[in-house]
Amino acid sequence: MLNLFAKYQPEIPTFTHVILALLMLPVAFGTGSALAAPQSKTFNDYTIHFNAFTSDTLQPNVAKAYKIKRSKNRALLTISVIKKSLSPTGMPVKAHITAKAINLTGQLKDLQIREIQEGPAIYYLSELRVADKEVLDITIQVQPEDKSGPYQLKLRQKFYTK
Hints:
Helix content is about 15%, strand content about 45%. The protein is mainly β. The chain has a single domain (about 15-160), classed as Immunoglobulin-like. A hairpin with a 6-residue loop joins β9 and β10. The model is unreliable at about 1-10 and about 20-35 (pLDDT under 50).
């Protein structure tokens, strides 16, 4: 896999930089943006960050490097688990994550979660097909590597594909 963390490839942004930029777009463009505002929830010593957006917002080189299909009709769910530590930003940790999405007509979509490590950062991603104006209720179960939890998160997201 292409090492996007390497210093000798400054023209290719790291996945970390892309996700941080995507998380800031709703702030920059107001609530009318197609991207949902990032969410986080804290459980004991863990903060779990999560978001869902259409994958066409990813830069082509980043999508290719991480084998993500860019499309307005494909959503990307991102999750990261941060443990409190002496560092002001905390420490990313591995976790067992499961997720499912249900649309308003009751159709269930089991999500396949995959882990991405980039330097010290750890992300969990899932891709799924979405329709224009489809609303998904996403339930995420997170079990940190130290077996604390499990912690449950809920996200309701409406996707715009046109």
